[in-house]
Amino acid sequence: MSAWSGPDARAKVCGVRTPRDAAAVEAAGADFMGVILSPGYFRSVEPADALAVYEAARARRVGVFVDAPAGVVARTARDLALDVVQLGGGETVATAARVGGAGDWAVWKTIHAKPGGSMAEAAAPYAGVADGILVDAWNPSLPGGTGHTFAWDGVGAEVRRAIGSASFIAAGGMTPGNAGAAVAALGPDVLDVSSGVESVPGTKDPARTRAFVEAVRRAGAGGQQ
């Protein structure tokens, strides 16, 4: 198991589709870069095309999968030398364990902030299995990248109590403008953005990407927003 945690928050830019956008991630100095490797989503990238995207940045490579067979996930993760496998669907604890045991990569499991639901209850089964828990806004039609936020109050403490030493990743409607407030309210190890740094849907804006990373760094270091 591998986790990233510490006193300073780190920045992840997700939904990167092209080497050009990966270059913006590289210039911004993001810590993690996510590529959607399951088909059928607006920001999906074919695994055969993903290597060129990853190679355009030095950020840690995150591959996002949604309800893909564990064997397919492991094979793709190996082929693309992923640092992190992010499971964004309804994957079971057994599936997460199988994926984690198949290679030297971290596993992040996404849970969603459903109205009236307990995020602690959703996260707790994966404690000791997943290296990180990613909390995202709930949308019945999409696993992520919706641009919507969720209520932050108390979420960070609730999730951390449930996951122990695993990393806590926060997503959902993050932007350069609210990144500092999100870090302060949630206290995540990693803050994750997708649509919030796009100039048009699916295209990362270099200036917004840099502003997001800088905001996360300032907030994670205790700076003023």
What is the total domain count? Answer: 1
Shape: globular
What portion of the residues fall into strands of 2 or more residues? 15-25%
The helix fraction, in percent, is 25-40%
Counting DSSP E segments of at least 2 residues, the number of strands comes to 10
Cα-to-Cα separation, first versus last residue = 34 Å
Task: Give the overall average pLDDT.
Answer: 91
In the CATH classification, which architecture applies? Alpha-Beta Barrel
Largest sheet: 8 strands, parallel, barrel
* Helix-strand pattern: EHEHEHEHEHEHEHEEEH
CATH superfamily: Aldolase class I
Give the CATH topology.
TIM Barrel
| Class from helix and strand fractions | alpha/beta
Number of DSSP helices? 8
Question: Rounded to an integer, what's the Rg over CA atoms?
Answer: 16 Å
Q: Low-confidence spans: pLDDT under 50, at least 5 residues?
A: none
Question: Looking across the biggest beta sheet, what order are the strands in?
Answer: 1-2-3-4-5-6-7-8
CATH class: Alpha Beta
Q: What can you see in these coordinates?
A:
With 225 residues, the chain is of the alpha/beta class. It has one domain (10-220): TIM Barrel (Alpha-Beta Barrel), CATH 3.20.20.70. It has 8 helices and 10 strands. The chain has helices spanning 19-28, 47-54, 70-79, 93-100, 119-123, 155-163, 179-186, 206-220; strands spanning 10-13, 32-36, 60-65, 84-87, 106-113, 132-137, 167-170, 190-193, 198-200, 203-204. The protein has an 8-stranded parallel beta barrel, surrounded by 5 helices. α3 (70-79) runs parallel beside α4 (93-100) and α7 packs parallel to α8.
